[in-house]
Amino acid sequence: MRWSVEIIYRTESGENVVVYYIEELEELQDIVEHCPDWNTIVTINIDLIRVCSPDLTVEQATTT
Fold it and tell me: Can you give the pTM of this predicted structure?
């Protein structure tokens, strides 16, 4: 998977953290639409799961 998505929901007993792993960011829309009411979302954190070249620069990427 390319992305790690952490959604924090507000519940009566406190915050509930749920982590999803997705390939494309467009999948996030379906997750939000099919999970608890989106008004209960506190935050959404998205992280790129790096699988290659963590030191690659923008300049290096444009020359390859």
Answer: 0.79
Strands, DSSP E only, in 1-64? 3-11, 14-22, 41-48
Note the pLDDT of residue 64: 59
Of the chain, the end-to-end C-alpha distance in Å amounts to 23
Helix, strand, coil percentages (3-state) for the chain, rounded to 5, are: 25, 40, 35
Break the chain into its structural domains and give their ranges.
Answer: 3-62
Residue in the block written with tokens 């998205």: 46
All residues at 6 or more sequence positions from 33 whose CB lies less than 8 Å from its CB, including other chains: none
